[in-house]
Amino acid sequence: MSIDLKTIKHISKLARISVDEQRAEKLAGDLNSIFEFIEKLNELKTDNVEPLTSIAETTLKLRSDEVKSKNIREQIIKNSPQDNEDYFVVPKVIE
Amino acid sequence: MSDITKKSLTELVENIKNKKLSSTDVTKAFIDRSEKSEKLNTYITNDFTSALDKAKKFDQKPNFNLKLPGIPMAVKDLFCTKNIKTTAGSKILNNFVPTYESTVTENIWNEGAILLGKLNCDEFAMGSSNETSFFGNVQSPIDKNLVPGGSSGGSASAVAGQLTPVTIGTDTGGSIRQPASFTGIVGLKPTYGSCSRYGIVAFASSLDQAGPMAQNVKDCALLYEVISSYDPKDSTSIDFKRNHYSKELTNNIKGKKIGIPKEYRVDGMPKEIEDLWQKGIQYIKDCGAETIDISLPNTSYALPTYYIVAPAEASSNLARYDGVKYGFRAKGENLIDMYEKTRSEGFGAEVQRRIMIGTYVLSSGYYDAYYLKAQKVRKLIKNDFDEAYKKVDAILTPSTPSSAFKIGEKTNDPVSMYLNDIFTVPVNLAGLPGISIPAGHDSKGYPLGLQIIGKAFDEQNILNIAYAMEEKINFKNKITDWWIK
């Protein structure tokens, strides 16, 4: 299997990371060597194996639906790169 | 003053309780040494002024019933600390000041400890050499231009260099045990679910665990007992009976059965590592325990599995860094352009690489072939351990396949960098506890570690084995203070 530049462009779009040509070529090289290493898993037959989805093997605990943090708007907005005190501000989305 | 920083945590606690030393004496000594140690690049942020204030306050009204009375401590910069910048070693969080405290650090301050500062680490804990940090690489106190290991490299250097009595790191694939091994200190990766993940910058949620790093096993046990707690704020936190690990620590391991897995004898492993392992086996026998040859047949599949599972979870966890709610934002022509530029400029090369791998293995058409496959192999790896633990109480392996390497030596070859974690990664995949203890030196005088892997929630047992072995090994770290101004 080989990851080409077109695939890199597609993944970078999905990951929302802009990648220029030079970086794309470097990434293609890196990812190909990493996936070559990962392909080793194909040696194993796993048809009848249950996937491990949770290591703890416990079901999630239920809790009552209570509000525990009230009036923390200031805290939430405190680290925003841009805000108008009440809202996060982003580049214009709707014309 | 310098004598103070040579003391273990246990000795410092005793000295403060006996009033031989004040918290101010101790805090001053570690600040003084930290200030002379800029060359190591261990600190991203220091909080020395406020630490001294807190120490003075403690001395005015001391509470000697606490487990860490007035003890200064620096922590990995992956733990959110209220009102103190928390960066995860990344440009994207360079201006992030949490409004809340992680449960693990909260537990530490509640027992009387005082924050010294935040320690350097690989960006988002992704790395094995502390070379991916936005704040520059960390130097090892062992030798010039030597990596301290990673991702908890700043933590390892700070403990080995005596800039903090003990510290906490996080371990997703070996990030506590590998740097501990490289710098001649003790590092424990607890059972998954033992220490709360609340307030720790997330990397791979099904693998991440916080754990203690210390000069010796007893200190490690004491700090572990402070940080391990059930926490409703972490849905994967487990409510089990926790011991007084330091009090119940014993070097009596007579009759214990220790497994020696043949699959950890990997191709190309230096003879020094094999010899160290054999020495370890002899120490185990000298302690009156028994060693048994075992097999963990799927060991060689652990690393490829990890490099699907961890990046997949990381790509999902790191989706939150979009330049909107917190962190760095780049200018963009529109919203999407802003996202893409923010993430491209804000994340370093290794983090981008892992997000790309993760996005790919989760993308439509590849999910079954990679992610599902990896989850199945993860099950097989866990089954291997379950099977082994029917016969043995713990497992002994080398911590790493080599000693520490030079800065820059492996940065151009991601796969050779990843191979560093070959012995530590299976433990995270199976959710088990593992401890690395210093066990010898290689021909260059660099430390080498041995790893003891336990059953889930059996930290007491591996701490006891480590404690018994530590006595026999009698390791002395070779710290020359080469970096001191």
Task: Using brief descriptors, characterize the structure shown.
heterodimer, A: 95 residues, mainly alpha, Histone, subunit A, 35% helix, 0% strand, B: 485 residues, alpha/beta, Amidase signature (AS) enzymes, 8-stranded mixed β-sheet, 3-stranded mixed β-sheet, 16 helices, 11 strands, 37% helix, globular
Spatial ordering of strands, largest sheet of chain B: 4-6-5-10-11-9-7-8
- The CATH architecture of the domain at 5-43 in chain A can be named as Orthogonal Bundle
Number of strands of chain A: 0
Termini of chain B, distance in Å?
A: 16 Å
Tell me the number of strands of chain B: 11
The CATH architecture category of the domain at 2-231 and 242-256 in chain B equals Alpha-Beta Complex
Number of helices of chain B: 16
- Over the alpha carbons, how many angstroms does the gyration radius of chain B reach? 21 Å
User: What is the CATH class designation of the domain at 5-43 in chain A?
Assistant: Mainly Alpha
Percent of residues in helices of chain B comes to 25-40%
